Amino acid sequence: MPLPVVTIVGRPNVGKSTLFNRLVGGRRAIVLDKPGVTRDRQYAPIEWKGCAFLLGDTGGFEPGVKSGLAVQVLAQVQMAVQEAALIVFVVDAREGLTPLDEEIARALRHDVRARIVVVPNKVDRPTHEVLASEFFRMGFDEICPVSAEHGLGVAELCDLIVEALPQTDVAPEEKAIRVAVVGRPNVGKSSLVNALLGQERVIVSEQAGTTRDAIDTPFAYNDTPYILIDTAGLRSRSKVHEPLERFSVARALRAIERSDVALILVDAQVGITDQDAKIAAYVQDTGSSAILVANKWDLMPPGADARQEFTLQIRDQLRHLDYAPIAFVSALSGYQVLTLLPLLQTVAQWRSHRVPTPQINELIGEATRKYPPPAHGKRPVRFSYATQAANPPPTFLLFVSDPSGVRVPYRRYLVNQLRAAYAFIGAPIRLVLKGKSGK
Description:
Helix content is 32%, strand content 21%. It has helices at 16-24, 69-82, 99-111, 154-164, 189-197, 243-257, 274-286, 304-317, 340-351, 357-370, 408-422; strands at residues 5-9, 42-48, 51-57, 86-92, 115-121, 142-143, 177-183, 215-221, 224-230, 261-267, 289-295, 326-328, 383-388, 395-400, 430-434. The strands form 3 sheets. Strands 2-3-1-4-5-6 form a 6-stranded mixed sheet, sandwiched between helices. The protein has a 6-stranded mixed sheet with strand order 8-9-7-10-11-12, with helices on both faces. A 3-stranded mixed sheet has the order 13-14-15. The chain folds into 3 domains: 5-164, Rossmann fold (3-Layer(aba) Sandwich), CATH 3.40.50.300; 173-351, Rossmann fold, CATH 3.40.50; 357-434, K homology (KH) domain (GMP Synthetase, Chain A, domain 3), CATH 3.30.300.20. With 439 residues, the protein is of the alpha/beta class. The chain is elongated, with a radius of gyration of 26 Å. GO terms for molecular function: GTP binding; ribosome binding.
């Protein structure tokens, strides 16, 4: 992480994620009025008065927990604390100083060298600022009361943060290739993210619904920047009832929409399900490139026959993604996981590949001469010009005498001709037909 890290910590339900969203300027973290919603670390770049830093949100800090997911949440918090240049210690001004606040303060003083700012939250009126004075008892010098919900005191907190950090330019996050890891619950998405990154970046558990938010992690491969996005499992809409899961599903779908490449995980033992097909169709509809990942392959019979049989199953049931390469991995054991990196690079390169206009015109001209489109009405359909649009996914503008006369089968034929000539591995190809009037 090239930018200095500012980490938000505090006990459960004091408003850490609300403050994170306020500072980021958007709903990046799920916020509900219940403890334990945030589990994994969440990061976002911030710029304030010419200074840039990376802001981190964390789950509830509960030193001393011994069992369950809380142990993994604590480990995530501790990792976030260790990498921080400055810590924003959030407390609840309305509830006052609690024994857990004091326990967290002792842990921070013992384990952390970073500068610590105590932030009493829920100070919704200037008259409430007196509530913040109680927290001086914890022994920290800097206290900055805020109301994360209403934005009061947030500018003062930002001023305090940037004064303590070195001047750093904003990281070029927009140029990174965004890779969303998607699939049904419990297919191994978080395990794959950790295996690719070589660290326990996100919590892994057999419990369904462990991952709740879309977690972005920057990394680089062959000097190319990427952002790997872990997402919540996507179940059938009819099975989603709880508000928290609805939020999680919405974040996962949004992650697909903003991704350049989607790693679509399927369980090799279970095979292709109807929900896998729905997820794959959504990926295609958004225009994201795709790689199909058969996970838990270490539990399958060895040999080429098993791969061939599974490949045939995927191609039969996910025909709309016949352009997506297939990888066979085991996220848990690490089997073939690193082969995803060069494959990911290949797919990303084809997504942005551009074909010179003369070559496109020559290819479309030859294809239409070889198999002319069926006549529409009394006049034949004629293609006059073709070019590639600037933005991914690969989109081709075809100027034609009558766009309505070019039916779906013939469009599919033209797409196949383009793919045969230029591959566009993993990328959906879009055709936009325009008539003489430009419509």
